[in-house]
Structure formats: C-alpha cells, structure tokens
Amino acid sequence: MTDISRRSGSFPGSFPDKDTVLSFIRNSATPVGKREIARAFKLSGSDDRERLKELLKELEADGAVERGRNKRVAPPQSLPEVAVLEVTGTDADGEVTARPVTWTGEGNPPRIFLMPERKGHPTMGAGDRVLAKLSRVNDRLYEARTIRRLDGTVGRVLGVYYPAADGGRIVPTDKRNKTELLVLPANRNDAEPGELVLADLLPASRMGLPQARVAERLGHTAEPRAVSLIAIHTHGLPTDFPPAALREASHAAVPSLTGRTDLRDLPLVTIDGADARDFDDAVWAEPDPDPANEGGWHLLVAIADVAFYVRPNAALDRAAFERGNSVYFPDRVVPMLPEALSNDLCSLRPHEDRACVAAHLWIDRHGALLRHRFVRGLMRSAARLTYEQVQAARDGAPDEATAPLLETVIAPLYGAYARLWAARQRRGTLELDLPERRVRLDERGRVAEIAPRERLDSHRLIEEFMICANVAAADSLERATMPGLFRVHDQPSLDKQETLREFLTGIGHTLPRVPRLSPAHFTAILDRAAGTTESQLVSEVILRSQSQAEYSPENIGHFGLSLDRYAHFTSPIRRYADLIVHRALIRAHGLGPGGLDDAAMAGLTDIGEHISMTERRAATAERDAIDRFTAAFLADRVGALFTGRISGVTRFGLFIRLDDNGADGLIPASTLPDDQYEHDERAHALVGQRSGRSYRLGAAVKVVLVEADPLTGSTLFALPRAEEDFSGDSVGGTDHPLQSGHRDPLRRSARFAGRATQKQRERGR
C-alpha cells in the first residue's frame, strides 16, 4: 500500500462512489494519478480503469478537481508537487514561510511552511528562492522541503570564529543552525578568536564537518554593537551607500520660497521619542474660524519634502528603493537615506528653514474629515518636543520648553485630537492591547533595562493626526485618478475566520457569521474578555487570525483601521512607500519637480511587492536584535524561576513570554513531561496523547531559564520538575532533567525555533 493510501485509510475492493474518490484526492498530500487511486481502492481490470477514468472526468467537469502535470489531479488551485518558492520571512510562531513565485489562482496563495534545512546548510532568509517539494496539509496550508537553492550564489554563514587544533571552527549565529564549520588554516583570512565573520561554504566533502572560508571579518563579539551587527548581516540589510548617492546628498540644499507656500510664521512643532534621531513630521491646529463648521478644527500636518531631494531614477532613489525603509535597533539605525538628508535637510529641526509637503485638514466637531488641501511649502519648526514633555504639560507640569506653548500650541492640538479620537471610537477600529518591549542601553552600549513601552495620550495624538493625513492623501489620489500606493489590510481569510470562530466558541465567545466582518466584531469580543484571565489569550488568537498589511496600487481599504482608503504619506525619510505617495501628489496637483514618473506608474505593483518584502525583512531583523539584547540581559540568570504566559504554540514547542520584562523563549516539545504531544492547531494547544495534558495559548506558567545565548538570540525555558524544587531563584537538585548533562535534546529542538513575534505599533500604521 502506498503512503497515500496509508494516510487515507484502507478501502474495500468495491468500486467507490464520486464523493469517496473526491475525499481521497482532497486528503492526499500531493496530486495523485489514476494508478495511486486504483491501488488505494484495490481496483483492477479494464472495466474498473475505464469507470475511474470517466469518474475523474466528471469531477473535473464539476470543477471539484484540476488536472496538472502527468494527468495527476488535485483540488482546485492546489500547488504542484514541486515548485519554485520565494522565502517571505518567519511567521508569528517562528516558522519560515514562503510563497510560490508563480501563482495564477484567485486571491492569495496558500500558506507554505518551509521545513528546517539539512544539517550543514544555511537557513533561508527573506528573498531567497528555492526549488522545493510540497506536501499539502489542507487547502490553505502546505509544508515544503528544499531541494536546492536557486539564487546562484555560494551559501554564506554568519558566525563566530574559534581556533582549533586542525585550524578553526565557526559557530553559526543562527539559532536554527547547530552545525559547526571547519576552517582550514589557508581559509582563515587572519580571523581572530571570538571574531564575528562571514564565511563562504565550500563544496561538501564526504567525511567530517562541512568546510568554510572566512570571507569578511566584522569585529569582535565582545563589542556592544555586535548584537545589531549580527541582525544586519543575517538579514542582508544594505548598510553602505553608493558614492554617487552620497555625492547627491552632499550637494543638496534648502530650496528657495519660489513656487512654495510660506509656512514659517505658523508655530509647527515636532513631537517624537526622546531618543528619536530624525524628525519628519510637524503638527499645528486651531479652531476652524469658518462659522459653517462650528466646533470644527483646522489641522496642519507638515512632512519633510524628501521628493525634492530624491528624484526618480537618481542614485539616491535607487539606494532608497533597495532599502525600502529604515531599520531601527536599540543602538543604531540603518537609514533609508544618507545622514546628510535623514538627519539634516529632511529632518525638521527647530528654528531652521525646511522644505515640506503639508496637508491642510479640516474636520468637523465629530472628527470627520470635511476637506483637505496639499501644498508644497517652506516651514520652520517652533520646537522639538518629546511625548513625555507634551504629556506632562497637558497634565499640568509644563517645563521651560512647553510652558510658552501650552495655551497657543499644545492645548489646540489636544482639542483637535479629542475630536479625532471620538471619531475613531465610533468607527470601531481593531484595538489589540499587546505588550511592547523597550530596550534601554547604558553609556557602554549594554542592556540596562527591558521594560514595557509606555503608551501616552501624546502618542495617540500624533498617531491620529498622521492617520487623518494618510486618509487625505489616499482620498486626494483617488479624486485625481492618480495611481499610487495604498496601505491595504484585508479582512481575515475565510479559513482563518472559521478556525477563530471555532476556538472562540469553545471558550464562550461568539464571532458572528456575517457577509463581511468589521473590526467592531472583534472589539466586542475583546471588551467582553477584558479583565478576565483569558484576556491575553483572546488578544493573541485574534492577532493570529489577521491578514498582513501590505502596499498595493489596488485599494481594498484598511480593515484594522476600518477605513475605505488609506496611504502612507507621513514618513518619507524612512519609508519608500511614502516617497511614492508624495511623488504622486506632486504630479496630481502640479506642485513642481520630483513628481511620479511614467516608469514608476507602470511598475507600482512590483514596487509594492518589493517594499512589502523589505518591511517584513526589517521587522524580522529588529525582532532578532531585540531577542539577542534580551538574551544578553538574561544570560547571568540561567537556572532562575520566572512567571510568564504561553505566547505561541507550534509543533516543535511552546513559546513563553515572561511577565516582568516581556522576554520571549522556547520550551521544546521534547522536554515537556513524558508523553507524545500533538499540535492541535484549532485549539492553539499541544496535547499529550496518553495523559491528555494540554498546554494552551495564553496559559500562565512558571518556567526555568535553561539557556540565554546573546550570539544566537536563543532563549530556552523548561517547566520546573516540581515547584517545591525551587527556593527563590535557584534550581534545587543536581538531577534536574534540564541540567547540563541533559541539554542536547534542548539544543536539537531549538533548531526548529524561530523568533517569537512582537507586534510593533508604527505611526499612522
């Protein structure tokens, strides 16, 4: 009996009906031919073969199956047995995801999980292409195993060099790659012990460790900057600007007032984090003097005029497109634009003339956007303020900088914000209250604190102003029938809705069956769960059901914000999408040079796909760095007992998020109490097959820290053998199954661990 028939069970020898054959085809992991079907159902003879042939024709005519290569059949829109895939990154549970390079079906292709690479092979990163063998789990989920890489480049590994008797070793920094590499003396390239290196894999030999040649030395791992350096090189972030781009940036200058609106008399202010390095948006508000809009407000959102300095197809433009966005680490920024622009001419520094594109926004007393107008101007920021300063001033404790601005600038900003916030509440956006970590470094670059990121009304104020400007930008492009890039966020797919609905029903919540869900449906559930022990669980599960936001010239609206149209306009220093929107507005309204060119208009789909990929790459790199900084922070507390919650459930283990610092780590399934555990995807749980013991998403747990490796970012936990084994923060008993003599199973399981996700809010989303 074939593998297919074993998976599908055994069948009697009588001829099956159409539904039975269709069920067999749907349950098969790969497309099947007549031979596999006949063998599974024990069919023989020419009569049976002819009946089966006619039955398959009927199924195909009904649209129940599709015929592919070698006349093999599968459910409609199924993926082939072998396909070229592009790696898209890692999902919320740390598994490597991919998508088919060619997809002709309707909607988005099925989800694809890429299985861990073979021993000695580098793991795949976003953008890598592979030829892979696919296995269908269900209509919307596949597993894939790499056959070979297709990028044509020599595999590279980032690791740490250590000397050895036969030359040296490279220990990979990727937590999923546990295979050391041999470096012969001739291939050392003068690497020193403990140095971070990039190494080229050499052709595999039949015996011994795989070999590598040191290609680039990146500095010693003891240096504080090594953590973010690892993240940068692991994810292939471009760091060096071409000389031509640097020359263009160095020759830039503030433009004259010709063709611009003079905004320098308006007391625009920037409001950013205390550690912000660039200031690309400034705000101002006043009560609308128009008597027809009583109780309404006039807002001004001024954004750095990056399009004036970065012209289409110039060296600066090509470099910015390659990066797609800036990437932020606790100790550095990898900017989209050179510092001569990002930290100078395009940074709205106080009391200096700066070119801007400004949105005049008029809202009514209910916070609805009545009208808008975009101008190209010259502005002069009245002050550089922080969120904490502005909030303190609003709360009655102004300082030297905010006291003169309290009544004339800050109070009107809060007045307009109150209207926008009320409109948001009525609109019903998706509000997931999920923790965010903030890593604070000391003067030596070492982790001083990891704490929840504070969320103030001043943060919400800026976010609402930016959202309003983004809506105006999208509306302006649609009214002008000007192509552009929209920030789109689709509602959850039907299969995710159904999975979520079943899970919520099991814990006493109801997700209605309606033609189109709205964020309000989710918010109602979140509100009912608020303050209960399952609040975190409900938030996590709803988060996992959501589609991923992306950039597209086709506007489908933004589900999470409950908006019909939305485009990123407010951060062109750090997001290429915003630069495209600026260029489109400039062309649509005849605002001067630097508008969207014809080539870009024709290629917006490709541009949107590229910068959606670079956004995912940046988010993954930022999470990687946070994981490594967190591991460094915890490294001296191995053996300590912590409290936390299960933040992710996968086939290979449980992700845990600690209560006191938000650190994430893995409990490998192989270390759970003695049993065989199966992953119940719908219940978000690992369930013991003999004991019935269940570990479910959101459950509170006590864990022991087993490993915290700053180089790999690997943080491993284990369940305590028994709570009484612990006294304070120390593990009691030398025979604990997770002590040094038992670590190998943990390390093997950790290969399958990706990075636990931390959803980060961004301005204007």
UniProtKB/TrEMBL annotation:
Subcellular location field: Cytoplasm
Alphabetical UniProt keywords: Cytoplasm, Exonuclease, Hydrolase, Nuclease, RNA-binding
Lineage: Bacteria, Pseudomonadati, Pseudomonadota, Alphaproteobacteria, Rhodospirillales
Protein name: Ribonuclease R
Assigned EC number: 3.1.13.1
An example Gene Ontology molecular-function term: exoribonuclease II activity
Matches recorded under Pfam families: CSD2, RNB, S1
CDD domains: S1_RNase_R (cd04471)
Domain S1 motif residue range list: 639-720
UniProt xrefs under PANTHER family: DIS3-LIKE EXONUCLEASE 2 (PTHR23355:SF9), RIBONUCLEASE (PTHR23355)
Listed NCBIfam families: 3_prime_RNase, RNase_R
Similarity annotation: Belongs to the RNR ribonuclease family. RNase R subfamily.
Catalyzed reaction equations: Exonucleolytic cleavage in the 3'- to 5'-direction to yield nucleoside 5'-phosphates
Xref: InterPro entries: CSD2, NA-bd_OB-fold, RNase_II/R, RNase_II/R_CS, RNase_II/RNase_R, RNase_R, RNR_Ribonuclease, S1_domain
SMART domains: RNB, S1
Functional note: 3'-5' exoribonuclease that releases 5'-nucleoside monophosphates and is involved in maturation of structured RNAs.
